[in-house]
Amino acid sequence: MTDMIDEDRTSSDFDDDFEPFDLEGAPELPAERYLDRELSWLAFNQRVLELAEDPLQPVLERANFLAIFASNLDEFFMVRVAGLKRRIDTGLAVPTNVGRSPVDVLDDISRAAHELQERHAAAYQELVRPALADQGIRVVRWTELADEERARLREYFSLQIFPVLMPLAVDPAHPFPYISGLSLNLSVRVRNTKTGRQEFARVKVPQMLPRFVAVGTGDGSDDGRYLTLEDLIANHLGDLFPGMEIVEHHVFRVTRNEDVEVEEDETENLIQALEKELRRRRFGPPIRLEVTDDMDDVTLGLLVRELDITEREVYRLPAPLDLGGLFDLARIDRPELHYPPRVPTTHPQLQPSEPNRPADIFKAVSRRDVLLHHPYESFSTSVVAFLEQAAADPDVLAIKQTLYRTSGDSPIVEALIDAAEAGKQVLALVEIKARFDEQANISWARKLEKAGVHVVYGLVGLKTHCKLALVIRQEKGGLRHYSHIGTGNYNPKTSRIYEDLGLLTADDQVGKDLTRLFNELSGYAIEKKFKRLLVAPLHLRKGLLKLIQAETRAAEAGRPSRIRIKVNSMVDEAIIDALYRASNAGVPVEVWVRGICSLRPGIPGLSENITVRSILGRYLEHSRIFSFLGDGDPQVYIGSADMMHRNLDRRVEALVRLVDPEHLLEIESLFDRGMDERTSSWHLDGEGVWTRHSLDADGRPLEDLQNSLMQQMAQRPRSGKRR
């Protein structure tokens, strides 16, 4: 629908004619206008914890939220806290937008993290564990078991666990062992019965074994009782140290710096450099020590000394540690204790024209742009089907694809391999620096190369984070471009739980834009002229600032104005300051953010026209949307970029403009519902406090947006228009 686009307006124009705000005479913005990003992230994880504390959530989902909280916090320490510490220790400047010293920031993080971890442990012990027990799922202790039950578990220990344990002594002949990051360990103090001498030993709890061991009934059935693996091992330490007296034993866990930094300009082989850095990451310095609250001072002192950590980095918590292990319990097959099953629908435009025959994706997309909304609409019958059809279609000449994170058995990767083996030109831009997926992406890159796929790794110094696929097809009128631009990764597994948007289009201008962008990523082209894309790092920030400025000037002139933004994180100071100035001009600004938000809403004279909401639930809100009223010519973009320095300055990101009137209405409706007071959400105030609004004045639950969207999609007609 190119007739709806100003063909003379390109994203390079955002650079060429962009004029920053004229700040002369404008009131100066207050110095303390940003919320601390690290504390804001911890506030996000608190919202996850509040879902675990919510008795209205199914109990196994509450256990899952406890595990998500634990996993999130692990990564926060491994990356964010580790990065702050490393920069302080090496004398590097530590960026902070709140005007405080990095040491003060670390102190605040430690204080908040201690409070949250204690609340997390209490939520398990006092809320979720009893609620699980009420449903017949009980986590028991060894002391609660009957003799015959202990005998059965002792046999299980002897046959399945004992052979893989490796007790490591610490004495003059055995130095203190290396403690791997995130491993669960038993510290053991033993006494030699002959000499009376006490020694220390460490036993690592095997990570490949189930964390929760079923107690069972003796006839092979599961009675819903579980014992933690570390409790089972702790009660068989005599088998590991025969002839020794067990004096003390406690559980502890170490978190290490696992951030990766690759100096790309110092090496010609990025994969080799990254693999070397991944090996180094395993031995990063400790940054957090979690111990059970019953640990004696002698053992704790030894751990603190040998691990070289500070008292601030010690977290005393009730057992069990590492509640990320609750992921195992959350997978118990009790449907009534989970969210009701929801099956994604196939988008009406992509429905097969005949029963039992696959849809012709090219034919459907050639008629009209398709706006996809996952997981409500199926990823498999849209994006995967699009790429699989492209791989099998003899008229397809070339496929170009970015891969940031994908699953281990990805049908998308297999489609690219099939296409290459069929003789098509296939380009895969694999981002091997996707954090914690580096090794998997290296493996995929090598597999693709062996199949004949042209594999590239993007631009030096930049991560390629954009979500793009381009198919070139020979048709009667010549070559035609079919494109997909998304807000989420090409990962069929996470597409079932991540909320994302994607545009399938045969628009020739989008195809030309993607062709230029892929050429820039795989070759040496320097191309700025895009028609329907905004691309970072060259001009996405400037483009958004210009759009914000246009709304500001409209408000100043008394014309209608509005800004709506949905992102995972809102941190970038230039964007935030522009939104403050828009608010001061009278522009209504609505920000829907899942995670970090450094913007202070609702402050008179600064942001009284800005509201910030957050929605968490069954699905992880992941889409990024930027909507501007545009003086009657709506400017609405979706894409991969969050409002963070790394996204705007150090990554290749892409936003695509939506032009179909129905798509614009759908985005408007989504915002209307997301920001509605009748929708369950968290509200942010100017002090950085998030308050949950989940019940109405009569105590009835507010609308669950995700649930209602899924129901709405399921009831939609199988063909025809979306409305």
From TrEMBL:
Keyword Transcription carried by entry: no
Residues annotated as domain Polyphosphate kinase N-terminal: 34-139
Annotated keywords: ATP-binding, Kinase, Magnesium, Metal-binding, Nucleotide-binding, Phosphoprotein, Transferase
One Pfam family cited in the UniProt record for this chain: PP_kinase_N
Active site positions: 465
GO MF terms held by the record: ATP binding; metal ion binding; polyphosphate kinase activity
EC number in record: 2.7.4.1
CDD domains for this protein: PLDc_PaPPK1_C1_like (cd09165), PLDc_PaPPK1_C2_like (cd09168)
Positions of the Polyphosphate kinase C-terminal domain: 360-525, 533-694
Coiled-coil zones: none
Binding-site positions, ATP: 72, 498, 594, 622
Domain of life: Bacteria
Amino acids binding Mg(2+): 405, 435
Cofactor: Mg(2+)
Post-translational modification: An intermediate of this reaction is the autophosphorylated ppk in which a phosphate is covalently linked to a histidine residue through a N-P bond.
Family membership noted in the UniProt record: Belongs to the polyphosphate kinase 1 (PPK1) family.
Main function: Catalyzes the reversible transfer of the terminal phosphate of ATP to form a long-chain polyphosphate (polyP).
HAMAP family: Polyphosphate_kinase
Protein name: Polyphosphate kinase
Organism encoding this protein: Agromyces mediolanus (Corynebacterium mediolanum)
Gene behind the chain: ppk
